[in-house]
Amino acid sequence: MKNFFKIWMAALLLVGAVGCEYDDDELWDKVNDLEEQVQQNKETIATLQALVEALNQGKVIMNVEQTEEGYKLTFSDGSTVVVNHGKDGQDGQNGQDCDSFFQSVVVTGDSVIITLSDGRTIELPLMQRETAIYATGSDGTQGVYWRNGVATVLKSPISETAKWTRGKAITVVDGDVYVAGYETRTVILWINGEPTALTDNTVDVSVHDMAIVGNDIYIVGAYNSDPVYWLNGEMKTLGSMGEIRSVEVDGTDVYMSGSDNGMAVYWKNGERVALSTDPWTYADAYGISVADGNIFAAGYYDSEAATWLNGTMTQLTNDWNYAQCRCCMISGTDYYAAGNDGYNPVYWINGTMTTLETCNSFGTVIGIEQVGDTIYMNGICDNQAVIWVNGEKQVLAEATTGPSAYGLYVVEEIVE
After folding, report:
1. CB within 10 Å: which end of the chain, N or C, has fewer?
2. How far apart are CA 260 and CA 299, in angstroms?
3. Digit-coded pLDDT (tens) for 29-51
4. Is the dihedral angle over the CA atoms 151, 157, 159, 165 positive or is it negative?
5. Looking at 10-75, which runs of residues are DSSP E strands?
């Protein structure tokens, strides 16, 4: 720092000596470069101190995010450190080409290794994660939910057996497992396996989907043949002679899709939007997905699989083969729908159909999700409750009494 001020004073004296005719741009550029170097040194020292402190305190790196000039590390206590490996060294592999104190950052399976310009290294542990695949439905004898294939029984709140319980939708929030479903005429919400009845077992009910946003829990279905949803346990009716099949929250807007008086519809914040208008041609919107202002719904119209993009219908089949879409999603510029064509589980990408497999009695896809580059689907094939991971089938349960996988949720979880 003292050398910097000596250079700065010398620069001022030189400018005064030569008068106004002297071009001092080059000299001021050098002064500015020195100021920048001083600031960079301060930042480097602060980063190094934070890394050593994290090492000494046993902090674990929770997330690694690559930036244009390095990496942003997020630790288990919420603190962050940005490690810049220089502008000229590209990958930071050649220390001579790198203009930073930090030569490279390498992410391994269980640690992050930071190499300094003198060759020394700092190694910090990286939090281990695994992909957890949750599904819910029935194993053929009772209601269950699965985590990576291991089943947990969904207990009944009204009887001593779980024989008639069924899980229909599942999600995980902060490690807590939420399942929405029913038993005969009772709508049930399970939280970590503990049931709460939302209806009194007096009229026919159905449950299809669930969404949790903050402290609000939305469950959608039907009550006495009317399309309804429950918000934190309180039932609200949106129409008559129909069902709400799907719910999705986009920002502050809540979208639901299904049927009302025989027509395919969706609701935005409770306001009804018709997707079909002829009550004599049966239609239903089983799934809805919203992204970048586009509203994509999927279902069936007059016994043929159909999708609606911003209200415009596309019929995906035309063979009277009992085809329908049961779910949908938007992924970038691609529009996915999935369901069945006849007895076989299928999916469509931008209208092009792919058959997952041939089932002898009946098969369908009921849900679809994407995590990273992996596509997950759940459903039924003959006497099996199944999931498909990038098209490869995994059997959750097999029984002659009709197992099913109705709900799906995939999340990256921390390995304890």
Report:
1. C
2. 13
3. 655 666 666 666 787 788 888 88
4. negative
5. 61-66, 70-75
Residue pair 220/244 in contact (Cβ under 8 Å)? The answer is yes
Of 274, 234, 269, 279, the closest CA to residue 258 belongs to 274
Assigned token pair, 346: 């299928």
Give the number of other Cβ atoms within 10 Å of residue 384's Cβ. Answer: 21
Q: Distance (Å, rounded) from C-alpha 343 to C-alpha 265? A: 26
Taken in order of first residue, the domains within the chain and their CATH numbers are 2-125 (no CATH), 129-414 (2.130.10.10)
Q: Identify residue 131 by its one-letter amino acid code.
A: T
Closest CA to 294 of 280, 310, 279, 305: 310
Neighbours of 8 (CB within 10 A): 13
Residue 259, pLDDT score = 97
In whole angstroms, what is the distance from residue 258 CA to residue 245 CA?
A: 5
Distance CA 209, CA 216 (A): 14
Q: How far apart are CA 6 and CA 8, in angstroms?
A: 5
